[in-house]
Specification:
alpha/beta
Length: 324
């Protein structure tokens, strides 16, 4: 299980030392600069936020006054607000299992397009979904090498999607940059994971990682890579007791709960368009900071909600955090 106390700067929990300046008197939108020499005396929660239109295009140029944030339904004063393009550590989860046989080309094309258009200072970790999760030895800034490795992947095997995403969340602890994201290219099907859906969702909520999902069509009449017909019923996990949840819905839920975006791609054009929108969102995130009056006991879950005064837009932000 991911450690709750390992949340880093880019997303949820940051403990800051404040000077004699009373943070409660700061005007909305004022930026606080962390300084290591300050005495730790106050807690701040930082929430990355993306705002998009109906087509997934990022809305630019917003200010602190355009947002409201709530902690357990209580309105909070915004004491920190930033919008900077910073380097990002990205885990690329590429589903190469048997169910992706006909959609793998679309997935590879989208993944390569994202890597090639990335910030030169970004770093990447390629993970592959098959019978067993696969991962590069370490993060790398060699985007050309990552794109080449993506091109070499071939389809086959069972589908341990949940286990691979779980591994990716753990591997993100080794990332260099505070801003961290997982981008999943998959149809969402799973028939070979040891972890359950609920375990993955809990790990995702505790991690300092935003998850973006590019959902691809399932292979009609395909196989699981071992000669057995691939059926939607094969996504059931040991220990799951509730009604069967379809794979695409799980991918959408992961994105929604962690503040990422999700897209459906049925062609190379769709995949490229989706990853360009993901890149745009990552480059133009707003980071809202507030100081909760009462954090509660260590490990307590808090519900957060971010709204905007702008009409006809969608706000994407993590919906919870844990007290340190």
């Amino acid at each position: 299980m991911l450690a709750r106390r390992e949340l880093r700067f880019s997303t949820l929990l940051l403990v800051l030392g404040l000077t004699a300046l009373d943070a409660q008197k700061l005007p909305a939108g004022a930026a606080l600069t962390p300084t290591a020499a300050f005495k730790i005396s106050s807690q701040m929660v930082l929430v990355p936020v993306s705002v998009t239109d109906n087509y997934g295009k990022t809305i630019l140029g917003l200010r602190a006054k355009d947002f409201s944030i709530f902690d357990d339904q209580k309105p909070q004063q915004i004491v920190s607000f930033t919008n900077e393009d910073v380097p990002c550590s990205v885990g690329m989860v590429l589903d190469v299992s048997g169910s992706m046989r006909n959609a793998l080309g679309i997935a590879k094309d989208g993944a390569q397009a994202f890597v090639r258009a990335a910030n030169p200072d970004d770093e990447f970790l390629l993970l592959t979904v098959s019978t067993l999760p696969g991962a590069q030895p370490a993060f790398t800034s060699d985007s050309a090498g990552v794109a080449q490795n993506i091109g070499f992947t071939k389809s086959g095997g069972m589908t341990a999607l949940i286990d691979t995403v779980y591994l990716g969340l753990n591997q993100m602890k080794k990332a260099r940059h505070p801003q961290r994201a997982l981008i999943i290219f998959s149809d969402g099907m799973d028939n070979h994971s040891q972890y359950s859906r609920n375990q993955l969702l809990r790990a995702a909520l505790e991690a300092d990682v935003q998850i973006y999902t590019i959902i691809l069509p399932t292979t009609p009449g395909g196989t699981a890579g071992n000669g057995a017909p691939f059926r939607p019923s094969m996504i059931a996990k040991p220990g799951d007791r509730g009604p069967q949840i379809e794979g695409p819905e799980l991918l959408e839920t992961l994105a929604d709960k962690t503040g990422g975006l999700h897209f459906r791609a049925h062609s190379d054009v769709d995949a490229r368009d989706a990853v360009m929108k993901v890149g745009e969102a990552l480059r133009n995130e707003y980071v809202i900071g507030f100081q909760p009056a009462e954090a509660g006991p260590s490990g307590k879950a808090h519900r957060i909600r971010v709204t905007t005064t702008l009409p006809k837009v969608y706000v994407h932000a993590r919906n919870s955090y844990y007290a340190p």
